[in-house]
Amino acid sequence: MTTNNNNKNVPKATFQRYPVYLKALRKLKKHGVERVMSKELAELVNIEPTTIRRDFSFLGNLGKQGYGYSVDRLVDIFNQQLGVDFDEKIILVGAGNLGRALMNYNKWDYVVGEIVCAFDRDESKIGMELYGVPVYSIDELEERIPSGCHIAILTITHGVQNTVDRLVECGITGIIDFTSKHFNVPKGVVVKSVDVVSSIQELVFESNSMNKKA
Ligand SMILES: NC(=O)c1ccc[n+]([C@@H]2O[C@H](COP(=O)([O-])OP(=O)(O)OC[C@H]3O[C@@H](n4cnc5c(N)ncnc54)[C@H](O)[C@@H]3O)[C@@H](O)[C@H]2O)c1
Where do the annotations place NAD(+) binding (predicted)? Predict the structure, then answer.
């Protein structure tokens, strides 16, 4: 059991379904849907409408029956219940091949937030909108970085340490690094490195050693 904000004891199974509902509701919100019936939501999340109605009964008064639930209201409630901010403003540095692919994807499964702007040093890209994301000059990083932004995705090829230092100065505390280049960060800054090549190498190594044992 988990006690929620309405001081109701929520069964564990119900609580575990909250992120599933939130993801579906955020998707609906993105598509401009304002109200949703439990039956419609049931089809999206593959959970019985009766289970949904029971799960929602722990959330307090959600309005008149038969009229559908307010998507906005539910998103707010689930955000609160889960105690996380799924609206991270993420910046991307390096609007090249990989950067573009990430901007094109930019749905982040409707749960983590989205890339709000990109930075590059290439004059031909500055001022463009790529998949709806504006690209600014890296020279304007300090002026353009959105307030409250803590996460940066790094997809550049040059000057990594210098760029990281500037990002940290601007308040970035989390970096998703695709560059595979070594750089230092001060304490309190978290770096998650994504390296497809290393993953393939590990995979080859593991599958070779498994085959040797067999
Ligand atoms: N981790 C992985 O699995 C993986 C896979 C592919 C590529 N990469 C790496 O990702 C990075 C990007 O690859 P790509 O193919 O998109 O390269 P790319 O050349 O297509 O794009 C790089 C972009 O970054 C910009 N740039 C470079 N240095 C900059 C700086 N200091 N400040 C601002 N903008 C800068 C360039 O102008 C360009 O637009 C490379 O470091 C590459 O090695 C990693």
Answer: 94-99
